[in-house]
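Hello Y.,

Per our agreement to keep a running log of every chain we model this quarter, I'm adding this entry. I've kept the format consistent with earlier entries: sequence first, then predicted structure.
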Amino acid sequence: MTLVWLDMTQEELDRAYTQDAYAPNRLQILERFHVTSNWIRSRIGAPERLIYGPGKMEGIDLFRTDNDTPSPAVIVVHGGAWRSGSAAQYAFLSEIFTNAGAHCLLPDFDFVQDHDGDLLPLADQVGRSIAYICSNADEIGIDPSRIYLCAHSSGSHLAASVLSGMKDRFDGIKDDSIRAALLCSGMYELEPVRLSARSEYVSFTDETVDLLSPMRHMDKMTTPMIVAHGTLETPEFKRQTIEFAGALKERGLLISSLVADQCNHLEVFETLANPYGLLGEAALRMIRDN
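Predicted structure for the entry above:
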């Protein structure tokens, strides 16, 4: 038996980076994201659309709170294995923040298949979208000292990469631009991902693996963070989150590490929409206390 990563065979590692194996209700939950987002838009109205670049996907859905004064803002970076998902699909997350007096901004960005498997353009787009929001906070009506970030899965990976290895590439992102972040079920070291079946659609180069592995650039990380995962996640998504939490703790940046009992990869993130859910309550506390 040949081991390819830690104590895993190739088959086991492939399963550990394939959500279908551990979240058999994945398609049902993703469809519920769509349905709930449509329902939210029918109740609170369509978002404003901000443009952060010339690409067809380079826009941000902005759901405003009712405050007349500059307000906190929460940027939500969606997941989707780098190859699916959209701001529109995650509109269901907006109302918890607008009801709490914060604007909610959801950036769109390309899929990895749009760039022949190259992840760098996606990370660049996420970085430019965050930099745009931070640089134009006054014009948008955002309190620039109270910008927060929430992200999930591959979105957590891209967001963490922007706040670590890639941070120097974006003029609008300073050490204190993001007041605090909540990252759920992310990947923070790409070497095992490179060895997995995801290499069938992602072109992992040495440059990509190094630059976009936040665990290798913790010296640049300055944002206090909450990290979370579910007990029904794959063993690798659990391990990645636990080790990232440990690295944050060593730098004094770990706010808390949350574990959602009996939740898989998608179910845990769905709790962000509920002010009484594990992530929803944590996000509101993050805005209130940081």
